[in-house]
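Slide 14.
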Amino acid sequence: MPNSAPKHTHIIDVLVQSTTKNRKTGNVPTIIVGQNINEIKKSCLDSGCPLLSEKMGGAGQYKKHGLKPCYAHASSVSWATKSILKAIDKGSKTIKDYSIREGFRRSSRHAKFFRLSSIGDCSSLSRKVINKLVNTGKEYNLKPLGYTAGWRQRPDLKDIVLASNITMEDADKAVSKGWRATCQVPKGTKKRFLTPAGNEGIICPEQTQKNATPRNKITCNSCGLCSEGNQHKTRFKVIGFINH
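Slide 15: predicted structure.
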């Protein structure tokens, strides 16, 4: 498949957290797109993410939909990322400690997927880096799971991740281009729904589970609906996330 990545992306690499305490995703190795704050921010800006805040250089598109800006840059995700970068700067950790090989090798034996990504947008990664993630993941029985707001400029990623959108209409546009897609949905939306174009959708099962216990709680690692892009054998073309 041809490399459709923007020319600048050859300088963007990744860091890999081998484990996480994220209760939604489960303990899966997690990708950070970029190896410093500037690369991370640039990947989000270049993707055209509509949830990117004006402070980060975004256009503030989220406001007209009554949404808040992306949480990743102003939450524990950002703090954890900065902690990793600080450790590397101080020398207590190295880039190799967070390499793809090390991150996957040291992941939980229960992990089925790797998350692409916790912060940063994978549309800024070259196909060479994407292939290294996917191929190394296969060695450790880890499948890609994640999203990109930059799906319009990276059609080559549709077999890896889902197209991230705010509205069902934009999700339909992505599906018409061969993607599976995500969108935001308001509270009260039925668990299973049809988009305006008639595509079958389902709300993220982690958000609709009831009376969950630590033993039966649904996580991304146990669900996998958002994995493998359009290769996933499911009738649900659109995954909805309840506004929060």
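Speaker note: The two ends are 37 Å apart (CA to CA).
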